[in-house]
Design brief:
This protein is mostly helical. It contains 30 helices and five strands. The chain has helices spanning 9-25, 29-44, 53-70, 115-122, 128-136, 145-154, 158-165, 181-194, 197-210, 213-230, 233-246, 251-263, 267-283, 289-300, 302-309, 316-328, 348-352, 379-391, 415-422, 430-442, 449-470, 487-502, 506-519, 527-537, 541-550, 557-569, 573-586, 590-595, 614-630, 634-641; strands spanning 72-73, 79-80, 337-340, 371-376, 477-478. A three-stranded mixed sheet has the order 3-4-5, with no helix packed on it. The chain has a two-stranded antiparallel ribbon with strand order 1-2. A hairpin with a 5-residue loop joins strand 1 and strand 2. The longest helix has 22 residues, at 449-470. 37% of the residues are buried.
Length: 643
């Protein structure tokens, strides 16, 4: 007996697909059965099983009859027209020569094919006109309308997708089980494509309260994903918890939890939860092997598992870039040169400081030790860079910006990706690594945390290795930002710091900032503020004080008032009083914003943060008031001193 569950799935689907084409082309049952008698055994390879001819004829006839009986007929308004069984004493249609009741009519387990299975294959075969007729006849099973709508989405016809699917969800929702989840997903995607966010929000809210348990869980999952994309992890966790309550054994909840934890870079916890879900789903008999494989991979590496699970939906260029990064990561580090600048240029960075905006400025010159120098790539790398410059369509960001602001135009070209795939040694160039990091900033999919971890992080970590090899901490040199040759490396260091902060690696991020300040003492990126706050949060008051003294008369509140906090904690209240008065002369609004328990947020300036302004005071309060408040008596002391 033929059981399609244990047969080769691809062959079985091929039989049905070819049978459907035959029926649509020639809807005459006798000719179809004759076709099946010749073709079905060959396609399924039944002769390879050592079956007798009579058994092969019976299996073929049973399967062909089941397909015909389940196939909707276009001429009948896409209704099926099952064959009437022969009379008991008639010759069996399988061709055995026996009576029907003594042959195929005596079999108990005649296969039945569901209309959904037939329609799944038929929908991909129907031309547009025939599909319209089937929809007009209301013949397509309602859960499978999602396949039609998804096809229209691929054709950039979201309005038609919405018009098709909205009626599915207009009536009572309790009867719509998990079979309707694809329709739910496609409708939400269509709303997104049309920018109908209000409709989508109302739709999700309705499903969360009135839907079946499966659809409630799907709606909460979608809401959680929205919050993850926005970086609102608290709301995302609440929505995930609601999804879990609605449908505790839904495998999609496992994917959502791994996604949520990985987005927060809680990789150890994500791995543990993947192990839990893998055990749980196996125990309840989950059959989705691909999903179980994902969980098994997530146990080892959640970030990579998410990248691989999204590979089919990702921009193929990102997948190509990841392949290149994987290959290039194993390359040895190149030897960059550090070329001292000529004496007449020694003071150039200090003179250029006043022209740098956005990072604060100083009134007195900074004391910069060591020799200014340019980073210089090896000759072979410079040759690669000359080819690269002719292929890469993007330039360098302006000043200390990290993006080009070209809305991802660099990704419209493929020549540079093709060059990378052919040239793994391009990973030896800080200039090329910088361009790749810039390109990733422009790609919309790079906002996914696991994409940043898989693609951007290896680039900036390789740059870190190259720089530490070229200019280690013991080297008596620095690489000023004002020199074009140094900007790619310094920009990569700053990007590495941002990656580490996003991944919760605050201590490692501080080390990156210290290196960036060592190499670029003028601090055009303004990282001294973040480093100061890191020192103060960690109780490293002596280091905070040393940092503040490197930047006298700084107009960044973090430095000016951070010095006050460090001195107070070190028991030097008189010096703290003097420094506070100097800070108040430069930035007078900070004390009021620190000492008041509640204060109204000022209206932001369209021109950006103003040194000494209300907006700067508010931003410093938001960043550091909890640290000041935790120091006993300091806010009362500040209030007295500044009264």
């Amino acid at each position: 007996m033929f059981h399609h569950e244990t047969a080769d799935t691809e062959r079985f689907e091929q039989v049905i697909l070819l049978a459907l084409r035959q029926i649509i082309q020639d809807p005459e049952p006798a000719r179809f059965l004759a076709w099946a008698k010749n073709e079905v055994p060959r396609i399924l390879g039944l002769y390879d099983y050592g079956l007798e001819d009579v058994e092969i004829r019976r299996l073929t006839n049973m399967l062909a009859t089941a397909i015909w009986n389940a196939t909707p007929q276009p001429a009948l308004g896409y209704r099926a027209q099952p064959l009437e069984p022969p009379s008991a004493h008639a010759p069996c249609p399988c061709g055995s020569g026996e009576r029907y009741d003594a042959c195929c009519g005596d079999l108990d387990d005649v296969p039945e094919l569901s209309a959904e299975l037939i329609w799944e294959l038929l929908l991909d075969e129907l031309p547009e006109r025939a599909l319209k007729d089937a929809l007009d006849a209301d013949a397509v099973p309602r859960p499978l309308l999602a396949r039609v709508a998804d096809r229209w989405l691929e054709q950039d016809r979201p309005g038609r997708a919405v018009a098709l699917l909205e009626p599915v969800f207009c009536g009572p929702l309790e009867a719509l089980d998990e079979a309707y989840e694809p329709a739910f997903d496609v409708l939400c995607d269509a709303y997104d494509r049309l920018d109908h966010w209000r409709k989508k929000k109302a739709f999700l809210e309705r499903l969360c309260t009135a839907g079946s348990r499966a659809l409630q869980s799907a709606a909460w999952q979608r809401i959680s994903t929205i919050h993850i994309d926005e970086g609102d992890f608290e709301q995302a966790r609440d929505a995930f918890a609601a999804a879990l309550r609605s449908d505790p054994d839904n495998p999609s909840n496992a994917l959502l939890e791994i996604t949520l934890l990985a987005a927060q870079h809680q990789d150890d916890l994500a791995s543990a939860r993947a192990r839990f879900w893998l055990h749980r789903l196996r125990k309840i008999g989950a059959q989705e092997q691909g999903f179980l494989d994902f969980l098994a991979q997530a146990v080892k590496n959640p970030q990579q598992a998410l990248v691989d699970s999204h590979a089919d939906a990702l921009d193929p260029l990102l997948v190509d870039l990841q392949d290149w990064i994987t290959t290039a990561a194993d390359r040895p580090l190149p030897d960059y040169g550090v070329i001292p600048l000529k004496p007449p240029q020694r003071d150039a960075p200090a003179r250029a400081l006043a022209s740098v905006g956005g990072a604060g400025s100083t009134r007195r010159s900074l004391m910069v030790r060591g020799t200014p120098a340019d980073l210089r790539a090896p000759a072979r790398v410079r040759r690669l860079e000359s080819v690269w410059r002719a292929l890469f369509p993007g330039g360098k960001p302006n000043a200390t910006d990290l993006a080009l602001g070209d809305a991802g135009q660099v990704w419209l070209s493929v020549e540079w990706i093709e060059y990378l795939l052919e040239t793994p040694e391009a990973a030896d160039s800080l200039d090329i690594l910088d361009d790749l990091a810039t390109a990733l900033y422009e790609h919309p999919e790079s906002t996914l945390p696991w994409i940043s971890h898989a693609l951007l992080r290896p680039l900036v970590d390789r740059a870190w290795g190259i720089l530490n090899r070229a200019a280690p901490a013991a080297a008596a040199c620095h690489c000023p930002w004002t020199r074009e040759a140094n900007r790619p490396a310094l920009r990569l260091l700053f990007r590495r710091y941002l990656c580490q902060i996003d991944e919760g690696q605050t201590q490692a991020a501080a080390v990156t900032l210290e290196t960036l300040l060592r190499l670029n003492p003028q601090d055009h990126h303004g990282v001294r503020a973040e480093l100061m706050n890191h020192y103060l949060r960690g109780g490293e008051d002596a280091r905070a004080l040393t940092l503040a003294r490197r930047f006298p008369d700084d107009l960044l509140a973090d430095l000016a008032y951070g010095e006050v906090l460090a001195l107070y904690r070190l028991g030097e209240q008189e010096r703290a009083r003097a420094v506070l008065r100097t800070a108040v002369d430069r930035l007078p609004r900070i004390p009021r914003y620190l000492t008041r328990k509640r204060i109204k947020r000022p209206r932001p300036s369209p021109l950006g943060m103003t040194p000494g302004g209300e907006d700067q005071a508010w931003m410093y309060r938001e960043a550091m008031r909890d640290v000041w408040e935790a120091e006993p008596g300091i806010l009362r002391w500040m209030k007295r001193v500044t009264a």
